[in-house]
Specification:
about 130 residues; elongated; 6 helices; alpha+beta; single chain; three-stranded antiparallel sheet; 2 domains; two-stranded antiparallel sheet
Length: about 130
């Protein structure tokens, strides 16, 4: 969302998008390597990192929904566990991976899905 402001336009970044940008677009690395060059940029990137981290902890991005499922010690799950958490079939999970809608890595003959990527996929699905 873009808003007009006294000092120019202002962009509002949703928490889920902030988490995605930090993890997948490399904003976390960029923030660390360019820290101190511009205080306003530093503050904006830090805000994005904080908001993204808060979203990734909820799994939903809002306090008005059920709490996220408890995480086991693992940061990733297999396709069967992902399907159970999403309430869909394993085939639907595999199809989402094949179509690029769900990030996953192949480990031997099974797919592994990072829990944060599973949370992003869940947030993108129509309700």
């Amino acid at each position: 969302m873009i808003l007009g402001g006294r000092q120019g336009a202002v962009v509002i970044v949703p928490a889920r998008v902030a988490d995605y940008l930090t993890r997948h677009a490399g904003l976390g690395r960029y923030r660390k390597t360019h820290r101190g060059h511009d205080p306003e940029v530093d503050a904006a990137l830090l805000a994005i990192a904080i908001v993204g981290a808060s979203w990734s902890g909820t799994g939903t991005g809002t306090a008005h929904t059920n709490p996220p499922e408890p995480r086991t010690g693992s940061t990733s799950v297999g396709s069967a566990e992902a399907a159970a958490r999403l309430g869909i079939t394993s085939r639907a999970v595999t199809k989402a991976i094949a179509e690029g809608r769900l990030k996953a890595t192949k480990s031997g003959s099974t797919w592994r899905i990072h829990c944060a990527d599973l949370d992003h996929f869940r947030a993108q699905r129509p309700h």
